[in-house]
Amino acid sequence: MAQVLVVADDLTGANATGARFARTGMRVATVTPEHVSRVAGDYDVIVANLDSRHVPAEQAADLVTDVIEAVWPVGLVVKRTDTTLRGNIGAEVEAAYDAVRERVPSGTRVRVLFTPAFPGSGRITEDGVQLLNGVPLEHTDLARDPLFPMSTSVVADILAAQTDLPVRHVPIRRITQEMLTAELLAGDEPVVVCDASTEQHLTDIAEAAASAHHSDGTVWVAVDPGPTGALLAYALRLRGQAGSRGPMLAVAGSTTELTRRQLATVARTGAVRFVDVDAVRLSDPEDDHTDTVAEELTEHLSSSGFPELCVLRLVTGSEDVRELPPQARAELPGRLAGLVSDVVNELADRVGPHALPSGLYLTGGDLVASVLDELGVHAFDVGGEVVPLAIHGHLSGGPLDGTPVVAKGGMVGDDITLVECLAKLRRAVQARLHQVHSEVSEHVIPTLTRDPV
Prior knowledge:
Layout: E1 4-8, H1 11-22, E2 28-31, H2 36-39, E3 45-49, H3 57-71, E4 76-80, H4 89-101, E5 110-114, E6 123-126, E7 129-132, E8 135-136, H5 155-160, E9 167-170, H6 177-185, E10 191-194, H7 199-216, E11 219-224, H8 227-235, E12 248-252, H9 257-267, E13 272-277, H10 279-282, H11 289-302, E14 309-314, H12 318-322, H13 326-350, E15 360-363, H14 365-374, E16 379-387, E17 390-396, E18 404-408, H15 417-433, H16 438-441
Parallel strand pairs: 1-3, 1-4, 2-3, 4-11, 5-10, 5-11, 9-10, 12-14, 12-15, 13-14, 15-18
Antiparallel strand pairs: 6-7, 7-8, 16-17, 17-18
Helix pairs in contact: 3-4, 6-7, 7-8, 11-13, 13-14
């Protein structure tokens, strides 16, 4: 079934929004309301063009309700709005909110994430006011629009013209990601309107909303002119078969105290799953510890509810490692690398390429070399330094060919260096998935009016 439903009020906006999902490798189709249920099983993203911008508000709301009912369940409902907030904004937002709330389990928190900004098109939101190339909407030619003359650019007032849903305003206050997530979790208003003036703001909002979902189960209805809905779907790890990949995989082969502190810092910053390895047991060929760990790691990497990051870490203390026989100590990086290689090959063979890790982080000098060797990597395509001695790039060759990678020594950096490395890795993963691959470009987005699919 479809993972995402986009509800649009005109054809141009429908196709433009669908194209953003197609860039991530998801299979996308734009259809009219009567055809959504027929194609829901064939595409990852269904974009329903309601052609509702110029119909009465009550009719527009009914169309939204009907199309959500026809496609439900989906992982995310996106209500696409006009970039200058024309049309039945309030009525359609309320209809989407009510339709989702009626279909989720009782007690589930449902909220509207309304991010009107589209910085790439000159549309930004500051202090709850929508600006077109820096000018409030009512002071542009939109004030004389023959169908929707704009008399205000205050987003909450535009909503209030057609809905009584209370609105919470989140200003641009990007101090930490945790604070932004807290802003989105605060209050009980159904609609959260977010300021944004840059593409990075939109990414931060999407990631914070995903964190809120993971922390308290909040179900979001995304409302925006295009960018944020696709970013939120990515942050929620909704993937299509064509371009999907699993979570990022970190392998910590270092037992230094610095590495432990770095991992502890990561544990406090987001969705992460740890898989622990006992170096003593791993070194015993008669112990089934290796198989148990491999099964656990495979399960986390292939699960439909996977976290953003899986960390395979040595939990044996440095003193215990030093007490291992010299040969066992020398073989430890290779054994850990072999475990990683076995899991990657198992995922590729049993689940498919889309289940492979989307990014790879390696720490521990001997471990890095061993993992690259076990994976049959021909080259480490160096991109640069995250911090001195922490290198980012891409793998060339092997089952993870093209995968973004960051590698560093166990004694490199400070307590937050791993967070910085993972942020760089995450950006590289996003950039890779957002490329329009040749196979993705073959998925044409039909521009339908009233013709059958």
